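User: C-alpha cells in, sequence out, please.
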C-alpha cells in the first residue's frame, strides 16, 4: 500500500496574558497583534482600579484575541478558562503594581502577587503548559548606592525588597523558581526597570505629572527629588518579554533595562520643558515616600549577549511621543481621574 507522508500539524500557540487590561499587558497584546503572529491571545484580567477595557477596546474585533474577566486567585476560573481556550503558554503580568498603594495597605499585594502567582503556577502545572513567564521587577533587588555608578543589578544580585510591593513580587519570584527546581516546570522570569509610555495609569510618576500639568495642577516631587530610576519605553519591555518567551532558557532570570538612569528632578525638568511649564509655579516638594529606594540600575548584558535583545527607543524622542499621547488622549485619563481616583489622590497627597 502506498503511504502518504503527512506534514506534522503545527499546533497554534495560545497564550494566556494575565493583567492584559493594565499598562504593560495591554501594550504587549497590542504589539503581538500588530506583529501579525499566528497565535491566539486570551486576555485575562480582574479589572481592578488599574484594569481598563479602554486599553483593549480597539483590539477586540481581532479574532485572535478573546477577553475573559477573572481573578488569578480563583483557581476554578483560571482552570476553566485555560481548558476552554486550550492555553499552551502563560505570561503573568497581573499584579498590584503601585508602591505607594502597598504602603497604604499590603493585603491586596500579598493576595494577588503571591497567592495569585501560586494559583497560576498550580493550574499551569496541572494542565502541562509548555511555558510560564513571570513578569517581575528590578525592585526585588532593593536599592543601589548613589556614589558607585558602576554597580548595577545583575541576575546574581541577592533579593532585598524594601516595600510591601517589592516584597510580594520577590515572594512570587521565589515560588516560580521553586516550581522549576521541584517540579521541573518550564518557567522563565524577567525583571525590568521603570516603564513609560501610553496607557499607564496616572498614579505613576510620568503620567501623573503630565496630566496634572495639563489640568493646571502642581506636580508632587518626593523628598529631594534625587532618586534615580532606569527608564525604558514600554514597547521595548514588551519586545524583551517576547524574546525571552521564545528564546529564554527555562529556570533562568533575565534582567531588562534601558541603560538610561535619570533622577526624578531631571524627568520633571524634561516634562516641564516639553509642556512649557515653569519649575517655580509647577513643582511642589512633598514628604518623601517611606522606605524610598534611592537608585535602580539594570545590567542587561545577559539578555543582550544570550538572546540578542537591546532597547530600540531613545528616551529623548520616546518621552515626547509619550507626552503627546496623553495630550491627544485626554478622555482616556480624564475618565480615570474621577471618582475613586480622587479619593486616592486626596489620601496620598493631601497631608504631604
Ligand atoms: P498595572 O497596575 O497597570 O496593571 C495590572 C493589571 O493587573 C490590571 O489590569 C489589573 O486589573 C490586573 N490585575 C490585578 N489584580 C489581578 C488579579 N487578582 N487577577 C487578574 N488581574 C489582576 O501594572 P503594570 O504597570 O502594567 O505592570 C504589569 C506587571 O509588570 C506587574 O507584574 C509589575 O510588577 C510588572 N512591572 C511593571 C513595571 C512598570 O514600570 N510599570 C516595571 C517592571 C515590572
Ligand atoms: O522599577 C520598576 C517599578 O517601577 C515597577 O515594578 C512598579 O510597578 C512601578 O510602579 C515603578 O515603581 P516606582 O516606585 O519606581 O514608580 P513610580 O512612578 O511610583 O515612582 C517613580 C519615582 O518617582 C520614584 O522615585 C518615586 C517618585 N515619585 C512618584 C510619584 C508617584 C514622586 O516623586 N512623586 C510622585 O507623585
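Assistant: Sequence out:
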Amino acid at each position: 500500500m502506498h503511504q502518504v507522508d503527512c506534514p506534522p500539524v503545527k499546533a497554534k500557540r495560545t497564550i494566556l496574558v494575565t493583567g492584559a487590561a493594565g499598562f504593560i499587558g495591554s501594550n504587549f497584546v497590542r504589539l503581538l497583534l500588530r506583529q501579525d503572529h499566528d497565535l491566539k491571545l486570551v486576555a485575562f484580567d480582574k479589572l481592578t482600579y488599574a484594569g481598563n477595557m479602554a486599553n483593549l477596546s480597539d483590539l477586540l474585533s481581532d479574532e485572535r484575541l478573546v477577553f475573559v474577566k477573572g481573578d488569578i486567585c480563583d483557581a476554578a476560573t483560571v482552570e476553566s478558562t485555560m481548558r476552554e481556550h486550550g492555553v499552551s503558554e502563560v505570561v503573568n503580568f497581573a499584579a498590584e503594581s503601585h508602591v505607594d498603594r502597598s504602603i497604604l495597605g499590603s493585603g491586596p499585594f500579598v493576595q494577588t502577587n503571591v497567592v495569585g502567582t501560586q494559583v497560576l503556577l498550580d493550574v499551569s502545572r496541572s494542565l502541562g503548559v509548555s511555558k510560564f513567564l513571570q513578569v517581575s521587577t528590578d525592585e526585588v533587588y532593593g536599592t543601589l548606592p548613589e556614589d558607585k555608578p558602576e554597580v548595577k543589578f545583575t541576575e546574581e544580585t541577592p533579593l532585598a525588597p524594601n516595600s510591601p510591593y517589592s516584597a510580594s513580587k520577590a515572594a512570587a519570584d521565589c515560588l516560580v523558581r521553586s516550581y522549576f527546581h521541584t517540579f521541573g516546570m518550564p518557567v522563565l522570569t524577567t525583571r525590568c526597570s521603570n516603564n513609560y509610555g501610553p496607557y499607564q495609569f496616572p498614579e505613576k510618576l510620568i503620567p501623573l505629572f503630565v496630566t496634572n500639568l495639563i489640568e493646571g495642577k502642581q506636580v508632587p516631587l518626593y523628598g529631594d527629588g534625587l532618586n534615580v530610576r532606569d527608564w525604558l519605553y514600554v514597547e521595548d519591555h514588551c519586545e524583551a518579554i517576547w524574546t525571552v518567551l521564545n528564546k529564554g532558557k527555562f529556570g533562568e532570570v533575565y534582567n531588562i533595562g534601558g541603560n538610561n538612569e535619570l533622577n526624578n528632578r531631571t524627568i520633571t525638568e524634561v516634562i516641564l520643558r516639553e509642556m512649557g511649564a515653569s519649575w517655580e509655579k509647577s513643582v511642589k516638594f512633598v514628604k518623601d515616600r517611606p522606605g524610598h529606594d534611592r537608585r535602580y540600575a539594570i545590567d542587561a548584558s545577559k539578555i543582550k549577549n544570550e538572546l540578542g535583545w537591546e532597547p530600540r527607543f531613545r528616551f529623548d524622542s520616546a518621552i515626547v511621543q509619550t507626552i503627546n499621547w496623553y495630550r491627544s488622549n485626554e478622555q482616556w485619563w480624564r475618565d480615570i481621574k474621577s471618582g475613586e481616583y480622587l479619593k486616592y489622590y486626596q489620601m496620598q497627597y493631601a497631608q504631604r
